[in-house]
Specification:
Length: 207
């Protein structure tokens, strides 16, 4: 059972607000002390909620930190999508710009890299290819269409799946690499692989 399946999903406005305050507190504590130092007692002190209240919405400490990770990922992806749309990146060497924009935004987001490292260390990472697709899938689709406007639905699905899965796996590898030179080399490799997938789609015969 995944962390999200165990988590009580808030539906009422008051519950949603409580979860928001809990995750706000986690973000603050992560930036100040790092995820490994965050405890439910600290979260309770910051929010004013009883520890038992926190456990009404999260099953354990890892679940809480993953909740903060997931919310940050959504924010980052939303910002990237808005910036990409505003710059019309979908029609101008989009995959290079999109990937670099995503990486730069994630690196600059307070606390995200710490939470990403925590997620990998605890083998609790949940932002699979399907979740990345939900965030940037439409931009990937437009990038494919800019290369191959007459592409078939079948080939579109293949190319989109390849690019999204490359992004979902390799982006984390890039972000977690601490050597700047190696990080840039990995970034260029990811861009090259995604560009190759788009070029291949552009040369495919319509079905």
């Amino acid at each position: 059972m995944s962390q999200k399946e165990k988590r009580r999903l808030p539906r009422q406005k008051r519950s949603i607000e409580k979860v928001g305050l809990i995750l706000d507190a986690v973000e603050t504590l992560v930036v100040s002390h790092g995820p490994d130092a965050v405890t439910t007692t600290q979260i309770a002190e910051v929010t004013g909620f009883a520890v038992g209240t926190i456990y009404q919405y999260f099953s354990n400490r890892t679940d809480i930190l993953m909740g903060a990770h997931d919310r940050m990922l959504e924010r980052i992806s939303s910002e990237v999508a808005e910036a990409a749309a505003a710059a019309d990146l979908a029609h101008n060497e989009s995959i290079d710009h999109l990937i670099r924009l995503y990486v730069d935004t994630a690196k600059a987001y307070p606390g995200y890299l710490s939470l990403l490292k925590f997620a990998h260390a605890n083998q609790s990472l949940e932002h699979s290819g399907s979740n990345i697709d939900a965030f940037v899938g439409d931009l990937v689709r437009l990038a494919v269409l800019s290369k191959a406007p007459n592409i078939s639905d079948r080939q579109m699905n293949v190319t989109r799946t390849v690019v999204v899965n490359l992004l979902s796996v390799l982006t984390d590898v890039v972000l977690l690499e601490q050597d700047p030179e190696l990080q840039e080399r990995l970034l260029k490799e990811m861009i090259a692989h995604c560009t190759h997938a788009l070029d291949k789609a552009g040369k495919a015969e319509p079905c």
